[in-house]
Amino acid sequence: MKRYYTFVTVVCLLAGCSAAVPEFDLLIERGTIYDGNGGPPYVADIAVLGDRIAEIGAIHPARASTVIDARGLTVAPGFINMLSWAPTSLIADGRSQSDIRQGVTLEVFGEGSSMGPLTPQMKEVGAAQQGDFKFDIEWTTLGEYLEYLERRGISPNVASFVGATTVRIHELGFADRAPNTAELRRMQELVRQAMLEGALGVGSSLIYAPAFYADTPELIALMKTAAEYGGMYISHIRSEGNRLLRSVDELIQIAEASGASAEIYHLKMSGRENWHKYDDVIAKIDAARARGLEITANMYTYTAGSTGLDAAMPPWVQEGGYEAWAERLRDADTRARVAREMMAPTDAWENLFLSSGPDNMLLVGFRNHDLRHYAGRTLSEVAQERGTPPEITAMDLVVEDGSRVQVVYFMMSEENVARAVALPWVSFGSDAGSLATEGHFLNTSTHPRAYGNFARVLGKYVRDEGVLTMENAVHKLSKLPATNLGIRDRGELAVAKFADIVVFDARTIRDHATYAEPHQYATGMVHVFVNGEHVLRDRQHTGALPGRVVRGPGWTGHEPGDTRTAKQRYGRQ
After folding, report:
1. 115-145 pLDDT, tens digit each
2. DSSP assignments along 378-393, one per residue
3. What share of the chain is helix, strand, coil (3-state, %, to 5)?
């Protein structure tokens, strides 16, 4: 199954020919190709020259410097992680081990918050909130951050939305109020700058403070600016539970009013009492698509989500940021009010404390070393040990940890997850960092989606359960998200496209990470190439860091040698 050769000397000596310089840098030989377009597979060779695919067909191996025997293996475009939280984990370790080993070649950031634009105060707060890994914040704008990451060296390509929350904090801080006319105009100009630097659009995360404080007209105004440059609106919608249907309506309204496409982050129906809403949600989206709106979604392939304890407490107590929130939680009267509201059913805010319940809230992430022995235990277990009610325990942990505390919330049904996996307009995102089974990453637990989300699509939902065909799965992992993002030259195996290529064993690919033992790599991915460079070879990381910034439709620059306009390169198809 494994074979690579250097042909400059070997082949020519065996053939008795002169040692001519090969035409291609790489040949992937006789693999079963799924090109990303959703059609049936075919067996062929793929030749790569530099960072692009040069030829597909029957190609003599003597024409390439290096040949990889892919007989019996699946060859596909590199996968796109539509919701990546790897902006800081890639600074810590640019190899992107947990995602590269699943075939992810493009990480997309920006769920509500982004790494720019920043004020000096935002940089100070960001530095203060860093965990075990410390780094200098050497950038100010989003474009500067992306370029910093590329210069530092990363294995995958990266792209980002500009965060609506980040833009709001830039101008309003953590205040619970609407921007005035001048502030909103400045927020729009920040979006414009980010789009010109290559942002993909605007991302929001509306269950969290201070994003929760933004009303629909504010979001429409930001998106009207982004839409001038072909940007997408992508959102963790205002509710995934009790107000789910109204929140889908809001996303559709923003798309319609701004003229932009729109995507729902991690499509789900949270809380048993909301599982029955699946059909109504899909009907709303299909109706919007039928009348010409570009509405799509992404998801992770698990029945549990993961976020902080802030999602278990009312937004009003969090106004002003973490320090103000923690200070309020030290006040007895405030704690009593928060406890009452955490226990009371409501449509006013997204209450994950009730959606999951303390028995289904797994604590996984702490900054405070003295609390890390609680990782891997439920909130109810910790509350029982401490002798305090779960709602009081949650407040105590937030104060003692100096952070929002990361939690895994079990709140979705497997039936709905499987049905959503099969939807033709749904792509995939891990909603996690790209980690490694070494170093400071092991200091805390995590959600298994950080190590298994994409392999799980191919192993569980394609091979084992037949929810998807392989051609549909590859399309939804590559060409579909690339098209939704307006990226033309990636997500497809075709001549002149970038050589982001994965080679895997469809018979064995699978995820191994569990909630109890999440730090386990997926297996079955054999080779990964990013921009033509070999990043994963025979299932082992090579250490190569060829990743680049992938920019959106408003970018004013261009790739070396590319004379097309930005609209020609990245405009919607």
Report:
1. 999 999 999 999 999 999 999 999 999 999 9
2. EHHHHHHHHTS-HHHH
3. 40, 20, 40
